[in-house]
Amino acid sequence: MSYMNMNEIGEKDFEKLDMLFEEVIPNAEEIWLFGNGKIARAFDKYLQICDVKINGHVVSDDIHRNSTENNTITLKEFKERYKKGKTKLFLTIDSCYYSEILPKLLFLEDDLIYLNKVWKQNVLDRCGDVENITIIVPVCDFCAGIKCYGCTVAAPLSKSGMYNFDDYKKDLMKLKNLCGDNIQHINFTGGDVFLHPKFVEFVEYARDLFPRVFFSCSTNGVLFNTQQDDVWRRLGKCNITLNWTLYPVKYKDIEATVEKIDKLSESQINLQIIGDALDEDKNSWKIPYTFKKQKKYDWLFCRFHKDGHQCLTMRDGKLACCFSMRRVKLLEDNFKGYFTEEFEQSTKNISLDLYEINDPEFLYEWMQQRLDICDYCSIRERKSLGKWVPSNCDVTEWFVE
What we know:
alpha/beta, Rossmann fold, TIM Barrel, 2 domains, eight-stranded mixed beta sheet, five-stranded parallel beta sheet, 13 helices, 18% strand, disordered N terminus
């Protein structure tokens, strides 16, 4: 199969994962990981989260043994305890080392478990070292002019809801003191950012605190032509990348919007159009919730939590590593009677109180965990619905039976 990017997972990947977790692992008496580098450490943590107990790590010789790991053995020691058909060894090293290592592992035959490159990358994204964090700042909860079917943050259900500017300043300062130089990207989003009357001030305050961090913001473009030239000048001074998502919607004054886009090249604003061409239709898609518990290992292929491992959504003194923090609140407000007790309980650990965190390592460890709500996020039911369609604000846009 081909991959559009590292997030695109097909049915065959789920089939292989099912075979691994439902046939190979349950029938193994011992499970070992080859290597003790960052890939092996990430897989160790991932398998623990999936309730899979491993025996330890295998390295080629004593030189590669990590003295801090008391469950690491050499390949020679591994051979002495190996039971054909009962001992499985995961190859958790970078493929660039295969030519050196594989000749030493040929005796394993089918007991050597190769890992898809995409799987390895996704495990690193979730359970590897936390660095280069992106902070997502949702300045408001609703959009202008366009309501998308199955919206990621359920914005069509919101009529109001804005991030108070004074609260934002305190939150961002606290987060800067907590994470410091680990913050590499700040993304302002919504709803639509231009609906907040202090959006420019949000960006300017952040730029004062983070003079070298990459800035971006997302918008549907509806309000471009209503912005004064001073807005573009001030945003340009902050050196921000503007992501404009194209929709097949002929909203009012689109010609004026296109003219405004042309003028942006005169400022320092870097415009990125999400889509390959102006006549391309944006697709609708969704990852829905379900009331039937999902398999734990499906979490490996969650697009949102993949982003979440290196991303933190900051809003109203709360931090979340998944867009669900905002989406669940709006769903709960609109479809309260639809929730089951189990689903409602799963939302309890969806965010952290920013002001109760004093140790960044505690935060980084939390970012790597599987949330309770992952039980009810139906990755296998995610749908690309083809041509973009507007939302009817119906519960079925966000849930499947």
